[in-house]
Design goal:
The structure is a homodimer. By secondary structure, chain A is α/β, with parallel strands linked by helices. Chain A folds into 3 domains: 5-137 and 305-338, Rossmann fold (3-Layer(aba) Sandwich); 141-301, Dihydrodipicolinate Reductase, domain 2 (2-Layer Sandwich), CATH 3.30.360.10; 349-431, 2-Layer Sandwich (Alpha-Beta Plaits), CATH 3.30.70. Chain A has helices spanning 14-25, 27-34, 65-71, 88-97, 107-124, 140-147, 162-174, 178-187, 196-199, 202-216, 235-243, 305-321, 366-376, 406-418, and strands at residues 5-10, 38-44, 60-62, 76-79, 101-104, 128-129, 153-159, 226-227, 246-257, 260-271, 283-290, 294-301, 351-361, 381-388, 394-401, 404-405, 422-431. In chain A, strands 7, 8, 9, 10, 11, 12, 13, 14, 15, 16 and 17 form an 11-stranded mixed beta sheet that branches. In chain A, strands 3-2-1-4-5-6 form a 6-stranded parallel beta sheet, sandwiched between helices. In chain A, helix 7 crosses helix 8 (178-187). Chain A is elongated. The first copy, chain A, starts with a strand and ends in a 5-residue tail after the last strand. Chains A and B meet through helix 1, helix 2, helix 6, strand 12 and helix 12 of A and helix 1, helix 2, helix 6, strand 12 and helix 12 of B. Strand 12 (294-301) of chain A pairs antiparallel with strand 12 of chain B.
């Protein structure tokens, strides 16, 4: 049997501790499967005295992750520190440059420095694996990087943030308001004390930018993602959506268009009865539309210590099964030098259906004026619903459009507002067509 | 750049021709991604003169697949001949023994000879890849073999046959009878002229036996699968299921129990609102329950020339990315010598809920007698529905049980029949709990 694979874990939080436990408790299974043993030879964390329920005797301890990366007696550096900057960035770069494989769960790091790190890994002839960085335990990186090789991808979209999906599911199923559901998510540990990064859509954007690169063979462009979060979504929107045959999900969507690639994160109407509409709570799901394969959907736990540890362990096992000096597959699916520049499609050119909800004064001619603005902008309507607005003498008018452009919708909505009878902010939610 | 990978394709039917076209038309993309070119250097089919819309000039032609396997100037032998016996079996064995990698889409071959062929591949130090053999283009083999390494699997289940799912979906959505839907499936090319292999559940059983081995690390036991097909399912069953909150799908289920492993294929009630209930038409789906990861579901096209070719191409690309003499991963997830014997759980010990539909004479005491039989066998009921049977003076009594055993249900149903007022065959359909 080949020599044991020595793993160094930087970061012993929930994921790091779960990974440590799994490697110890599955020792024989892993050795049988991989054809060699996997051992944790070194770890690094902030506080050596903290009780993590794991036995660190015989494992070299480092206080500084940079020391572990540069000097640890390891074959694989597992980065579970988090954050796009240092120490995570410099540690990963140092380990790769030294010829040590890296496994990371750090989406922020990859969104910012992924291409640069892939180049370092390729030059050093080592692997940079990051299955856990997107959609937790779901093997979407492997699907894009390996299974779909040779396919041309037209669209990849998914539910990539468990916090948002938990809140939207709870609102819909239990008729609760946004604030109440957020508080509940925080109580259960599904949302941070400061939830902005999740509910603002930024976490989804990071993950999406990594998927975009893998799907389209372009350089990662995490700054060029159109982002809307879910803080605007009301229980009334959710009810109206259901009545019209839709469910609201926060999707990340990357799509090839004639003018470039769209990367967008926003609340989205998906058809009731589609599989993605049934993805509940903290579960994540990703759909890939590929020209040879067709449509592939993967769903599973998108976060949590164990699910993330499982993905990290799969990445480590791939390294254990490969042989030194003969590594398998570039980090971003193709060698970094072949990645194409990212060409952003303008959001105004986005084509699709729209749900538009307007609170309007209840007077003669309002409806006709709305219809005229839609018509003027070339928008044809799939359905129109009018009903009394909650607790006021206003009316809510809901329009569902056939496919049109973002520019037309923005213009039409501005036109309607310009006529002076719209109260408050109009709600505009994009509709995404799905196949399954 | 490393030398081109030379592929030999045995069988130029729909899949073979689609694969050939993909390798030619994606030449640059494949070379960029894999770090080396992929070329088709030899092919074999029955009729050289047939127009397949592909240009075979410069490609060596073999009339006999055994010649291609034994003498072709190839690095990879792609077996698309089909069938568990020869020539597929001897060709694959010969190619592996000669040190040539093999990619196959042949589930029957693997169900019968998979362990033996895995041993030959391991001895020769070459890869035996078969992503396309189960669930077409869905990367479930890779998920089990690589992504979930280190996880202990408790259950794997799925919709593995597009023909059956097409028929059941059509019956449910369009209120059509079984025979009519089968005829429609045959007209559209989704079912064979002799559909027994699909609708009898045998195709699902082959695929399931391969998943079982990968999930549980056991030797393939395709003869030890409990199989019921869908020919018995009536439109009345489908309606009754929907009313009670279920949809009927033909599932293959492999599950670890205290007495062994259950492998079963049968029509199954899955809850409405679960993701698997929304898997429609020829789409396939597989759910894996893993102890570290949690529940993972994959769905996509389960058949068709292109989807199958995509999976075959992914397998070829994995070989192209690896380096000769340093191969990656045993065929069945762990080296064949470590595979455990398969221990079959008895079907009578199966535990779960049951849907039981009985046509009974409409007389006093019938209902009480049924209830007494259930009670006598320790079966508690979740719901009971009674209604007039179609076009007769009989009544239909439908029972949905809480979790019980197969043995209890069989005994209870025999007990009820023994009392003499049941008309025709009782319908018994197992209920499968799902998480997502």
């Amino acid at each position: 049997m080949t020599q044991a694979l020595k793993v160094g874990i930087a970061g012993l939080g929930t994921v790091g501790a779960a990974l440590f436990r799994a490697i110890v408790s599955r020792h024989k299974l892993l050795a049988d499967t991989c054809g060699r043993e996997i051992t944790v030879s070194a770890v690094c964390a902030r506080d050596k005295t903290r009780d993590r329920g794991i036995d660190l005797s015989g494992v070299e301890w480092f206080d500084d992750p940079a020391e572990l990366a540069r000097k640890g007696d390891i074959d694989v550096f597992v980065e579970l520190i988090g954050g796009e900057g240092d120490p995570a960035h410099s540690c990963v770069a140092a380990a790769l440059a030294r010829g040590i494989h890296v496994v990371t769960a750090n989406k922020a790091l990859l969104a910012r420095h992924g291409v640069e790190l892939a180049e370092v890994a390729e030059e050093a002839g080592v692997l940079l694996n990051f299955e856990a960085a997107v959609a937790g335990g779901i093997p979407v990186i492997k699907a894009l990087r390996e299974s779909l090789t040779g396919n041309s991808i037209s669209r990849v979209y998914g539910i990539l943030n468990g916090t948002c999906n938990y809140i939207l599911t709870r609102m819909q199923k239990e008729n609760m308001g946004f604030d109440e559901c957020l508080a509940e998510a925080q109580r259960l540990g599904y949302a941070e004390a400061d939830p902005t990064f999740d509910i603002g859509g930024f976490d989804t954007a990071h993950k999406l930018s990594i998927l975009t690169s893998l799907a389209f063979g372009t350089r990662i462009a995490s700054d060029e993602v159109y982002v809307e979060g879910i803080t605007n979504i009301s229980i009334e929107d959710i009810h109206a959506a259901e009545e019209l045959g839709y469910r609201i999900k926060l999707l990340g969507v990357a799509q090839r268009t004639s003018t470039g690639i769209e990367q967008r994160v926003h609340p989205t109407m998906v058809p009731l009865g589609s599989m993605i509409a049934e993805v509940d709570s903290v579960t994540n799901a990703v759909t890939i539309e590929a020209d040879i394969l067709g449509e592939l959907m993967l769903s599973g736990p998108g976060a949590g210590g164990d699910a993330t540890a499982s993905a990290v362990l799969g990445d480590i096992a791939d390294i254990a099964k490969s042989r030194p000096g003969h590594q398998h597959g570039p980090a971003l699916g193709r060698p970094a030098k072949y990645l194409e520049p990212y060409t952003q499609a303008q959001m105004r050119s986005h084509e699709g259906g729209y749900f538009i909800s307007l609170k309007v004064e209840d007077r003669v001619g309002v409806f006709a004026a709305i219809a005229a603005q839609m018509s003027k902008n070339g928008i044809s309507l799939e359905s129109i619903v009018q009903r009394p607005a909650n607790g006021s003498d206003l009316k809510t008018v809901i329009l569902v459009t056939h496919a049109t452009t973002e520019a037309s919708v923005r213009e039409a909505v501005e036109g309607v507002r310009g006529e002076g009878y719209v109260n408050g902010e109009p709600q505009v939610i994009r509709i995404e067509r799905t196949k399954q």
